[in-house]
Amino acid sequence: MTGEVVTRFAPSPTGFLHIGGARTALFNWLYAKHTGGKMLLRIEDTDRERSSQEAVDAILDGLRWLGLEWDGDPFSQFANAQRHRDVAMQLLEAGKAYYCYASQEELAEMREKARAEGRPPRYDGRWRDRDPSEAPEGVKPVIRIRAPQEGETLVHDMVQGDVRFPNKDLDDFIILRSDGTPTYMLAVVVDDHDMGVTHVIRGDDHLTNAARQTIIFRAMGWEVPKMAHIPLIHGPDGAKLSKRHGALGVEAYRAMGYLPEALRNYLARLGWSHGDDEIMSTEDMISWFEIEDVNKGAARFDFAKLEALNGHYIRMADDAYLVERFEALLPELEGKSDILAKLDEERRARLLAAMPGLKERAKTLVELIDNAAYLFAERPLDFDEKASTILTDEARAVLGRILPSLEGLGEWTVDALDGAVRTFAEAEGLKLGKVAQPLRAALTGRSTSPGVFDVLAVLGREESLARIRDCAS
User: Which of 372, 247, 252, 397 lies closest to 322, judged by CA?
Assistant: First the structure.
């Protein structure tokens, strides 16, 4: 196969873009970018009852948020149904497929017999060589592929290696249902051929489908795309990924405060790696990515690793960029509408000034937003339990005694504030913590925050002094 590489991501719009689908999309995107090719997007919306426009929108939003832009317009599989039917009729006319009039009762009997004999249920080919003139009245036939019965079908897989399927196990599967709707097997093959897909990169749960789809490609005389079946993602305990492990939609990770570049980096390393490199820029990933380097074994999802990686990306991020992400996330978080309402130009500037201190302590944007709450708090502040414990009568008296030093300060800068507080502590014979802790509690309502001198500087003279006065005695 020569020419431009064309990959495709083909989700079903029956739910959100889940994390496994996001990684499949990423691997398709990386391979296309690495080879200078294209990634197409096909919405496999033939299941009309379960498909929804809401799910399509969520998939597109999730891909865009992750930065995985596709080439051209999204392609609807359902819209191509007539083309699928035409191909089924071509196969029928060429003798590569046939009408099957087996009733539901007959098929049920076949399944029961196979179960009793300990065999997997397979269609027994009873209409393979019969003439349609023998068809019972009133039965609408399906169309089945005339699959090879001897030998084996070989799938050359770029990840799994050569995988062999005995043809006796594949049976004459249905390509067109009795109501004229194409099956998934047929639709995928026709669409991949018509879209010029050269590489099919998908989960290894599709490996058996690859053998059946190869039979249709060959029956039509079409070139079989190169296949790469990537292992599924498991939880940390080795079990199949479930919601408790993190099998959530991409939008859930956005709402949990992960940065798209951190999630992209994490997903790239789930089942693929480049030496010991943990942190990879998008340019690095594109440059290094080879589909043959994907592991055969299942990858394990680890929230702790994702969180640590996200913390790194937050610390390295531009402060203005984090303010944008902060603001974009607020509408998705319960109970944060008051912060959004208060985010005027003055507070946005204050948030930007506070960001260097805030981002050092946060592993997610949600933590960052929580840690920034003091910037938006109204006086008198609500104190958490630990802050209330810190603000004893003795601590309040310390605040009362330091007030004159702060009120008389000429410059309200981090260095000047640091000097004034240290001078006061020495004069009082107190450890710095005995002054800094009550100040932090009074200024933020919490026992933890960015550096107390940073907090004082960001809040500014008037607001800082007002908050200290509220707690001083």
Answer: 372
